[in-house]
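Researcher: Here's the sequence for the chain we discussed earlier.
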Amino acid sequence: MAASMNNSIIFVMIALLSLSNISTSHGARSLLQLPNLPTIPSLPKPTMPQLPNFPVTLPTMNPLPNMPSLPNIPTFSPPPSN
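Model: Thanks. This is the structure I predict for it:
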């Protein structure tokens, strides 16, 4: 019962996808059959004003402080074996 229900759901999904593809292809065909659009005349390029020149100096930074050394982890000697 569950397998036939699963198959019918898949069949319905395939049918719906096929129908949506038909309408898409019909719309594409009707767009192809339209007459050519008139050409758009080219517009003159506007002249842009010159950008002002800014100095490219970066601010100086203070030197970084020295990193402190890491503390040593104490090690323990193994207990004596008997």
